Amino acid sequence: MNISIKATNIELTLALRDYTEKRMRGISKFTEGDANIVVDIGKTTSRHKGGDIFQASVNVTTVLGRKYYAISKKADLYEAIDDIRSEVIHEITSAKGKRETLFLRGARKIKKILKGFR
């Protein structure tokens, strides 16, 4: 698994890098084999009256070429990182369920057609 982290308008500290890598490492068990994960974290702008707004986004590309994307804007950067992790895992599992459902529907139709030949 290849994880690359980019920081925008903030300094990428060692603690922030470790936390992000730890949270994104768990995505590998939902993908088929190794995945290329690109994480972008940072402040959106510095002109907010109510405090800083942090943004985190993730691009996951699997070995089979499937791409998944998630983005989150929160007042806390760690919450945004947790949010994108859960969003991308939900997206990966729902795509897997759709593929399996499509396969089963096709198999049922083929079985129905083959029963007509007897």
Q: How many extended strands?
A: 4
For the terminal residues, how far apart are their CA atoms? Answer: 50 Å
For the biggest sheet, the summary is: 4 strands, mixed
Shape: elongated
Which consecutive residue ranges, at least 5 long each, have pLDDT under 50? none
One letter per element, helices H and strands E, the order comes to EHEEEH
Mean pLDDT equals 88
Number of helices: 2
- Rg calc: 20 Å
Proportion of strand residues: 25-35%
Spatial sequence of strands, sheet with the most strands: 1-2-3-4
List keywords for this structure.
2 helices; 118 residues; 43% helix; elongated; 28% strand; alpha+beta; single chain; 4-stranded mixed beta sheet
Give a summary of the structure in a few sentences.
By secondary structure, the protein is α+β, with helices and mostly antiparallel strands.
Could you describe the 3D structure shown?
There is one protein chain. This protein is α+β, with helices and mostly antiparallel strands and about 120 residues long. About 45% of the residues lie in helices and about 30% in strands. It is built from two helices and four strands; from the N terminus they run E-H-E-E-E-H. It has helices at about 15-25, 75-115, and strands at about 1-10, 35-45, 55-60, 65-75. A hairpin with a 4-residue loop joins strand 3 and strand 4 (about 65-75). Helix 1 runs parallel beside helix 2.
Helices and strands, with pairings:
Blueprint: E1 2-8, H1 14-25, E2 35-43, E3 54-62, E4 67-74, H2 77-115
Parallel strand pairs: 1-2
Antiparallel strand pairs: 2-3, 3-4
Helix pairs in contact: 1-2
